[in-house]
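dumping this here so i dont lose it
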């Protein structure tokens, strides 16, 4: 396996991208879970699918778009969807959770229309749905590296503000923290991370990578920083084990990564039960 990674560029791209995503997805996921916004990843992943389908359709229809990576269309749609969710949360002040199913439904509907116009599913779209070891390009890797740098820098600089906002938004506002601006930055970063995770985990499973490692970590950790650390550790184990399994068994990596995450969660729950 190690020799194959050094020999083939697509495996280098897949494993490097996977290792980075295994770190930044649970990192943001810890804040998302604490803020009770776990389903936002599902909503944005479906919006991203619409963008990718639109990119593939444009590439089929207009040759000038054929050279543009559909991932960038997905990123644009995901960011736009995150902003619309925030707008809807402001409209439905007392029922803010409505924003997520509204956006999820819209994303699925628009995606189905674009897929139908593109004459149904093709190999490229299938790889975005369930992930693919061989489909990760060097361009995808560069996108993952750029966004991961933004995520790590933002969390490093705004950790205290994000922590306070996650646990007590009213206190954060009363303390003079620019809550709207920080939440705006956070939601855009979440949208970008979801978009770049598509090639590895797939549209239908990306939310699991942001929540399952956090769910396991919360049963073991004694504080929020420890939760983040364990979430990243479990996320890395799930991604790397999932990619190795997908390579040897010729499976879609999204499924193997999620199943590995579930096994980790069950192991932690069993360990906790035995310990108690």
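and the seq i came up w/
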């Amino acid at each position: 396996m190690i020799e194959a990674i050094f020999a083939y560029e697509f495996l280098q791209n897949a494993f490097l991208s996977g290792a980075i995503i295994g770190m930044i997805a649970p990192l943001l996921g810890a804040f998302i879970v604490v803020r009770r916004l776990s389903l936002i990843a599902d909503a944005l992943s479906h919006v991203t699918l619409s963008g990718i389908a639109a990119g593939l359709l444009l590439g089929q229809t207009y040759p000038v778009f054929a050279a543009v990576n559909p991932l960038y269309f997905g990123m644009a749609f995901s960011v736009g969807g995150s902003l619309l969710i925030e707008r809807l949360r402001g409209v439905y002040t007392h029922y803010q959770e409505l924003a997520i199913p509204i956006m999820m439904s819209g994303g699925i509907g628009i995606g189905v229309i674009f897929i139908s116009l593109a004459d149904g599913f093709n190999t490229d779209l299938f790889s975005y749905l369930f992930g693919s070891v061989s489909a990760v390009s060097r361009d995808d890797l560069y996108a993952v590296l750029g966004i991961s740098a933004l995520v790590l820098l933002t969390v490093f600089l705004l950790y205290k503000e994000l922590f306070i906002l996650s646990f007590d938004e009213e206190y954060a506002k009363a303390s003079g923290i620019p809550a709207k601006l920080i939440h705006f930055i956070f939601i855009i970063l979440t949208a970008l991370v979801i978009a770049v995770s598509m090639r590895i985990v797939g549209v239908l499973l990306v939310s699991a990578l942001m929540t399952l490692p956090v769910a396991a970590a919360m049963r073991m950790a004694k504080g929020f920083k420890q939760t983040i650390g364990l979430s990243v550790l479990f996320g890395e184990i799930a991604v790397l084990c999932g990619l190795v399994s997908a390579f040897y068994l010729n499976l879609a990596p999204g499924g193997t990564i999620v199943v590995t995450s579930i096994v980790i969660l069950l192991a932690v729950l069993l360990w906790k039960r035995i310990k108690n």
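The radius of gyration is 19 Å.
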